[in-house]
Amino acid sequence: MTRKSIGDTVWLVRMVMLLFLRFELPASPVLVAHSLEDFDHLIESLRLHSNIPAVSVAIAANQRIVFAKGYGIADLATNRPATSKTTYHLASLTKLFSGAIILQLVQEGKVSLDDPAEKYGIHIPSPGIILVRHLLSHTSIGMPGSGYSYDGARFTFLGNVIQRVTGKTFAEEFVRRIQKPLSLYHVAPNPDTPAFDVTGLDRAAYKANLATPYKYINGRHIPTYPPAIFDAAAGMTGSAVDLATFSMALDRGVVVPPHLLELAYTPIKTTRGATSPYGLGWFTTTYKGERVIWHYGEWIAMSSLIVKVPARGLTFIALGNTDALSSPYGLGAGRIETSAWARAFLDAFVAGNARLP
After folding, report:
1. Contact (Cβ atoms closer than 8 angstroms) between residue 75 and residue 125
2. Which residues contact 40 (CB under 8 A, 6 or more apart)?
3. In the structure, what pLDDT confidence band is assigned to residue 31 with cuts at 50, 70 and 90?
4. Pseudo-torsion of CA 73, 74, 80, 83, nearest 10°?
């Protein structure tokens, strides 16, 4: 082989590698953590690679929070560091709480998953009858039940169900049923909304602990605040530690009865015979042979991720103050393996040999 052909071959290999890294692994240093220390370094590497000012993570194992840490800066104007208790805008992780309340109402006999949405004053043009389960499983578009299509706007209607049945808002029921019983005082509705009032928390103190959301544009982080809304699909804020606490409570069966939690974790079968990547309020999949339950949140200046491995009693939480925890990966399609953050956790502590305390 001539020197020129060798050079051409090397160039081609480099180009293929660059294309692979750019399009298949959009924000992922190619590393696998073999210890908790490695994982700690990998999270910081991912944060820097993704240009996220602040990330907070927590890992729960067998009913203990075994690792929790903040990385970077929660507010660039004041140089306030991120901690494991820094609160973030959670975007679609709000659905975990509204979905849990719907399942509680099912357990109480106040709601049936097969109730027509119209029973609760929800009127959505449709070729068929939309049921509560269709809203909860993102299968309401087109002929209800025929296929999965992630739609946060339709999920918001579950707040109507909660209010019609209880006479209270989603925020009020969240405080009564989840926040106070579990002492989740670092989880609350967006403090810029009236819904925050029902928590009884100090608004100024809560906002002082909230990570500033940023949009990353042309090498600069621009503060970009979400709309002042709170509903069943979005608008909750919270910390990594309190989300891990909520996840452990789910595992104990004190939030949702185990048989209904199992139903929530079971992928929906559509009327066309396909298996959806979504259950009732949760994504559900397998990763390297292990059952994984998960969800993500994303808006233009915020992102969040929860990954649960029920058989091992494991939960991983990652929260960030740009969209880069989620936006590069197209997670609405239900493919957790595309997420560098999820892979970092799963490859280390589930598929790999890294050990937790």
Report:
1. no
2. 67, 69
3. confident
4. -90
Supply the pTM of this predicted model.
0.91
List beta partners, residue 223: 214
CB atoms closer than 10 angstroms to residue 3: 7
In a domain, 12, yes or no: no
The answer to whether the CB of 111 falls within 8 A of the CB of 104 is no
Residue 23 pLDDT exceeds 70: no
Strand partners, 307: 294, 316
* Phi, psi for residue 103 in degrees, rounded to 5: -70, -35
In a domain, 308, yes or no: yes
Whole-number CA gyration radius for the chain: 21
Task: Give me the domain span that covers residue 319.
Answer: 28-349
Q: How many domains does the chain have?
A: 1
Half-sphere exposure of 44 (CA within 13 A, CB side): 11
Task: Kindly report the CATH number assigned to the domain that includes residue 179.
Answer: 3.40.710.10
Q: What is the pLDDT of residues 209-268, one digit of tens each?
A: 999 999 999 999 999 999 999 999 999 999 999 999 999 999 999 999 999 999 999 999
Question: Which pair of structure tokens corresponds to residue 15?
Answer: 């180009």
For residue 345, give the 3-state DSSP assignment. Answer: helix
**Residues written for the chain:** 357
β-sheet bridge partners, residue 283: 278, 294
Higher pLDDT, 18 or 128: 128
Give the model's pLDDT for residue 29.
54
pLDDT averaged over the chain? 93
d(CA 199, CA 242): 15
Q: For 68-86, what is the mean pLDDT?
A: 99
Structural domain contains residue 58: yes
DSSP state of 116: B
Residue 116's Cβ-count burial label (10 Å; 0-12, 13-18, 19+) is middle
Query: Is residue 20 a part of any domain in this protein?
Result: no
Using an 8 Å Cβ cutoff, are 142 and 127 in contact?
yes
